[in-house]
Design a protein that fits this description.
The complex is a heterodimer. Chain A is an alpha/beta fold. Chain A has a domain of 160 residues: 3-Layer(aba) Sandwich (Rossmann fold). Chain A is built from eleven helices and nine strands. Chain A has a six-stranded parallel β-sheet with strand order 3-2-1-4-5-6, with helices on both faces. Chain A has a three-stranded mixed β-sheet with strand order 7-8-9. The chains are: A alpha/beta, B mainly alpha. At the A-B interface, helix 9 and helix 11 of A face helix 1, helix 2 and helix 3 of B.
Chain lengths: 255, 54
């Protein structure tokens, strides 16, 4: 039973926070969007009125769109580190640049906060089903402390190295996924342009050396041109600082 | 994918295929597919050949 502050209740963070509630933890969620906060309450969690309130916990998880949001929420004025008590375990599960994660770890250490980065792979479905792959960067004792909580979110949880290592592994994951999608797409264009049934063609590929999880899970929807995400877009132009702040400029986060 | 490109720059290495994929994803966004799954790279690549779904 851990008191967990969870900041960022979006497409990934929402179901992850709900899974932590299911695992018996006390989850205090924070998001700019009131509908997302209401969803956590419906799942059995509670909500905080501020980042400071969410930080009053043994462990804080952040799940945010990109590096600027993590910088604002964790490092910024009125952010997590400003309010953190020494000894807090901070797990940033956002996918961000490795250098930002290293900065967060260094700044956290100055305040005696134990920081890990733990980006995930597995998408919205993996988040809902609590079967995410989680690649963790940070110190070994902190990883061991976080492991029981991470086990409520994912299936494959690997400590891959020090600060930044988790994000680097996530970047490697992204390039393999993106490259595989691009090549499967070109295979479909070639098959169709040549008058070959792409379903039959990709079925053979999926069973051979070219086989991959993407061919296994996505070939039918790709050929059928079903590209929509499971529940809408992850694009957001919300910003994570108070809107009056100079650094807070809206930007798109389509990933 | 922007993160992979940034990580490569920081590590002072060349990842040419990654750069290409990042550009294809940029094309997907520019063509209005930014809200879709990355499997929508198929749209970009069939547009490149002037083809539409049969």
């Amino acid at each position: 039973m851990t008191r967990i502050g969870f900041i960022g209740l979006g497409i990934m963070g929402g179901p992850m926070a709900a899974n932590l509630v299911k695992a018996g933890h006390t989850v205090v969620g924070y998001d700019l969007d009131s509908a997302r906060k209401a969803a956590l309450v419906a799942a059995g969690g509670t909500v905080a009125g501020s980042i400071a309130e969410a930080t009053d916990a043994e462990l804080v998880i952040t799940m945010l769109p990109d590096s600027p949001q993590v910088e604002q929420v964790v490092l910024g004025p009125d952010g997590v580190l400003e309010h953190a008590k020494p000894g807090l375990l901070l797990i940033d599960m956002s996918t961000i640049r490795p250098d930002t994660s290293r900065t967060v770890a260094a700044e956290a250490a100055k305040r005696e906060v134990r920081a890990l980065e733990a980006p995930v792979s597995g998408g919205e479905k993996g988040a809902i089903d609590a079967v995410l792959s989680i690649m963790v960067g940070g110190a070994e004792p902190d990883f061991q402390a976080a492991l029981p909580v991470l086990q409520a979110l994912g299936k494959t949880i690997v400590h891959v190295g020090g600060p930044g290592a988790g994000q680097t592994v996530k970047a490697a994951n992204q390039l393999v996924v993106g490259g595989t999608y691009a090549l499967v797409a070109e295979a479909i264009v070639l098959l169709e342009a040549s008058g070959v049934d792409p379903h039959a063609g990709l079925d053979v590929l999926a069973g051979g050396l070219a086989g991959s999880r993407i061919l296994e899970l996505k070939r039918r929807t790709m050929v059928d041109r079903q590209f929509a995400r499971v529940s809408g877009s992850t694009c957001t132009t919300r910003t994570w600082a108070s809107r009056s702040r100079r650094r807070a400029r809206p930007r798109s986060h389509c990933r | 994918m922007g993160i992979a490109v940034a990580a490569a720059r920081q590590a002072e290495i060349s990842l040419p295929v990654t750069a290409l994929i990042a550009q294809l994803i940029a094309a997907a966004r520019a063509q209005g597919y930014g809200s879709l799954d990355h499997s929508a790279l198929l749209k970009v690549l069939e547009n490149a050949s002037g083809r539409t779904a049969p």
